[in-house]
Design a protein that fits this description.
Largest sheet: 3 strands, antiparallel
Helix content: 10-25%
Radius of gyration: 18 Å
Strand order of the largest sheet: 2-1-11
Distance between the termini: 8 Å
Structural class: alpha+beta
Number of helices: 6
Strand content: 25-35%
Order of helices and strands: EEEHHEHEEEHEEEHHE
Number of domains: 2
Length: 202
């Protein structure tokens, strides 16, 4: 089993991080632990290069339509959206929160909530910047695919092709982790990092 401090933890994976993984605590609002703090990853960019880049343009009317259920579930009102910009970014440069300017004023939304609302095929990762390309059109330009947390699958494949062992790859993407044989896992022995979300594996 992959462990940290003699405890199990959620070993998240992402398809292609685009240059660096993010602290799981920033993406999934969990407690920060060493193996999930994020690392630089030149390996997936070495493997795919510019193929990791993507650009999506979304009309503000569609953003309004897609976000409305999320806002109204919380008891708020969503006026017509005028602008979308980054409000907070992680150490890897990923969007953590977005600021949405509406007819009723601004509000912030979690980047993963925004991705889910727009569709993850439209916004493949949270490693992006925004640009207003018209009064009713927003452009999202980014790199990578997936949540950008834990092990980068494309990066791990590249490391393996360069002769790096599986154990070394795991220790690289999950620093401080160890592979241990656990005969029994008692309740409450998981590290305090919330499991769940896109790309989870154990």
């Amino acid at each position: 089993m992959l462990t940290w401090d003699r405890r199990l933890f959620p070993a998240y994976i992402t398809e292609a991080c685009g240059g660096g993984t993010e602290d799981a605590a920033r993406v999934f609002t969990s407690s920060s632990i060493m193996p999930l703090a994020g690392v630089k990853c030149p390996f997936c960019t070495r493997a795919a290069g510019e193929a990791l880049a993507w650009t999506t343009r979304i009309p503000t009317s569609r953003i309004t339509q897609k976000l409305k259920p999320y806002v109204e579930t919380g008891g708020g009102r969503l006026g017509s959206i005028r602008r979308v910009e980054l409000a907070d970014t992680g150490l890897s440069g990923r969007a953590i929160r977005l600021r949405i300017e509406t007819a009723f004023g601004p509000f912030d939304v979690d980047a993963e909530v925004f991705r889910a609302a727009m569709g993850r095929s439209a916004i493949p990762s949270a490693l992006f910047v925004t640009k207003q390309v018209g009064p009713e059109l927003v452009e999202f330009s980014g790199r990578g695919r997936g949540p950008g947390v834990g092990l980068c699958q494309l990066g791990a494949e590249q490391m393996s092709s360069e002769g790096v062992s599986a154990v070394q790859i795991l220790r690289y993407y999950f620093p401080g982790s160890e592979i241990a044989r656990l005969p029994y896992v008692a309740p409450g022995t998981f590290a305090d990092a919330r499991p769940g979300g896109e790309g989870r594996a154990r």
